[in-house]
Amino acid sequence: MMQLFYSPTSPYVRKVVIVAMHLGVNDKIERLASAASPVVRDRNIAKFNPLTKVPSARTDDGLNLFDSRVICEYIDSVCNGGLFPVAGRARWVALMQQALGDGLLDAALLARYETAVRPEALRWKDWTDGQISKIVDCMNEIELQVPSLGVDKFTIGEITIACALGYLDFRYENMQWRDSYPKAAAWFAKFSDAHDFMAATVPPKG
Ligand SMILES: N[C@@H](CCC(=O)N[C@@H](CS)C(=O)NCC(=O)O)C(=O)O
After folding, report:
1. Least crowded by CB within 10 Å, which of 52, 118, 127, 173?
2. What ligand 1 atom has the least distance to the C-alpha of 37?
3. How far apart are CA 180 and CA 25, in angstroms?
4. Atom of ligand 1 nearest to the CA of 9
5. Contact criterion met (CB below 8 Å) for 68 and 14
6. Which residues on neighbouring strands pair with residue 64, listed in sequence order?
7. Residue 63's closest CA among 150, 115, 4?
8. Whole-prediction pTM
9. Would you say the CB of residue 58 lies under 6 angstroms from ligand 1?
10. Cβ pair 22, 16 in contact under 8 A
């Protein structure tokens, strides 16, 4: 189906892998190793995506696809998967939930790059604090939206929010988000128990 620049720790790649697993085409994706970084850029990825980010894909019929939103929708469309409702309120809710999860991830990744990538002398605390406050506001919104999140029935919205919560567990363990967001915690536990793709894609520690 496609070649995919892949990283086991990227929450955006996790979205793609979950979609592929759920729709039964995971073995049709050839994984290409990547070392994506905003500073030391992996020029191999540029063959597929000028932004040199993961996930980036090339389909068997020669399309270069990025980012995770586009790749997920491509897989869903080829498989007729129904993870992207085609029209009406259901579509806008699913896309908004995806944007909420992706937005949380964008802020979490920017804040992480501040400590993981930027030299200490060049750091600016206000910037990091701004990103962390976006994570908090997104979590407040997710907590409010829990009644609209499905467990057995789900779309790209639930998948993305699950990847976002999983990323907080992976990189922001100290945040202990479950203490402040009990409804999101209960939904995440049910969603993770209900779907093998969640345990199968937990990012490796270390
Ligand atoms: N909006 C993109 C975000 C992808 C992204 O930021 N991926 C990170 C890894 S988790 C990356 O490749 N970072 C390298 C960079 O920023 O240059 C998506 O949804 O795929």
Report:
1. 173
2. 14
3. 37
4. 10
5. no
6. 58
7. 4
8. 0.98
9. no
10. no
Return the closest-CA partner of residue 145 out of 103, 189, 183, 113: 183
Q: Is 37 in the pocket of ligand 1 (CB under 6 A)?
A: yes
Q: Are 98 and 160 in contact (CB under 8 A)?
A: yes
> Residues 67, 13: contact at Cβ < 8 Å?
no
Return the amino acid letter for 21: M
| pLDDT tens, N- to C-terminus, the chain (206 residues) | 999 999 999 999 999 999 999 999 999 999 999 999 999 999 999 999 999 999 999 999 999 999 999 999 999 999 999 999 999 999 999 999 999 999 999 999 999 999 999 999 999 999 999 999 999 999 999 999 999 999 999 999 999 999 999 999 999 999 999 999 999 999 999 999 999 999 999 999 87
Q: 171 C-alpha vs ligand 1 centroid, how far in Å?
A: 15
